[in-house]
Amino acid sequence: MILTDRDILDAMAEGSVAIDPAPPAEFYAPNGVDLRLDSRLTLYRDPAEGEDPVIDPAGPGYSFCEAITGMADDIEIGDGGFVLDPGRLVLGWTLERVDLRAGARLAARVEGKSSLARIGLIVHLTAPTIHAGSTGRIQLEIINLGPRPIRLRAGMKVCQLILEQTLGVPQRGYGGQFAGQRAAG
């Protein structure tokens, strides 16, 4: 069951979910709430000369964190924004921290905004799920699939959070490879 704007506000008031900073009233839609882009982006580098460019996520000893550290750098979005060229992938974060309390029977999805999707901006490729018990800022896989460059600005509305009630309480909260991952800021 998807929570309405009223349900989201009730869940926040009772402490089942926390969004910090709290979104202003105009960020709520009938079935979700807008989240903003943080000022930090992770940009992928071209492989160095002689470096094997192939990523092998199923290979022995593969670590996502080590792979990203070895091929990407963090930048701060300046006053002029960051121009995302067509076909380029960057990692971003939500400005808001989202905490889905363990035992609250809530999970969420992060979805793109249709106004951005229609110009080619995708904010998650295949990873919309925010598991029950997750806490922190949400990492976004941002790619420009459109025909023109798109300027990203810190603080812009970049995605929406859809909260869903789970049928039961998970046996354990989220503890996958991204639990406790470093967040921007």
Entry keywords:
185 residues, mainly beta, Deoxyuridine 5'-Triphosphate Nucleotidohydrolase, Chain A, 10-stranded antiparallel beta sheet, two-stranded antiparallel sheet, 12% helix
The total of beta strands comes to 12
Elements, N to C (H/E): HEEEHEEEEHEEEEE
Q: What structural category do the secondary elements indicate?
A: mainly beta
First and last CA, distance: 33 Å
Strand content: 35-45%
What would the average pLDDT be, to the nearest integer? 90
Shape: globular
**Whole-number count of domains:** 1
Characterise the protein shown here.
One of its GO terms (molecular function) is dCTP deaminase activity. Keywords: Hydrolase, Nucleotide metabolism. The protein is mostly beta strands and 185 residues long. It has one domain (5-45, 74-165): Deoxyuridine 5'-Triphosphate Nucleotidohydrolase, Chain A, CATH 2.70.40.10. 12% of the residues lie in helices and 39% in strands. It has 3 helices and 12 strands, in the order H-E-E-E-H-E-E-E-E-H-E-E-E-E-E. The strands form 2 sheets. Strands 1, 2, 3, 4, 6, 7, 8, 9, 10 and 12 form a 10-stranded antiparallel sheet that branches. Strands 5-11 form a two-stranded antiparallel ribbon.
